[in-house]
What does this fold into?
Amino acid sequence: MNEISIRAAGIEDAEFMCQLLIRSITQLCAEDHHHNAEILNTWLAGKTKENMVAWIAKRQIHTVVAYTQNQLAGVASIENSGFIHLCYVAPEWIGKGIGHQLFKHLEAWSVAQNISELSLTSTATAKQFYQNHGMVFTGTRTNCFGTVGYPMKKML
It folds into this structure.
């Protein structure tokens, strides 16, 4: 098992975060976008270096990066409300514990912030991952970037 280092994202990570998100969505989320250019364009539109820099700077959002073997392997972010915006892993690191470690970090951070409930809207691709981490469906499917989103919650 490779050592995984998780730390707060910095401005220097923004370009790599953007690239990771684009690769992960494009390569791993085909079950959601079905290689439909319109859906992909909508989903990827905000994945820019400038938006990553702005995201990192927001005080109400805790954004972290996971590194292993000196490579960015994952990125995650959560609002002070407990809403998880991101939990993505680079395609080459899927199945190696990066996503698990990121999710556990978000849980531990939430507990330290006295947040009692996590929530998110999952993709079809990620819903089993979140269920494996104790998240449960909470309502009707929603539209998420032109794909189906699955609202989920977990009490801490």
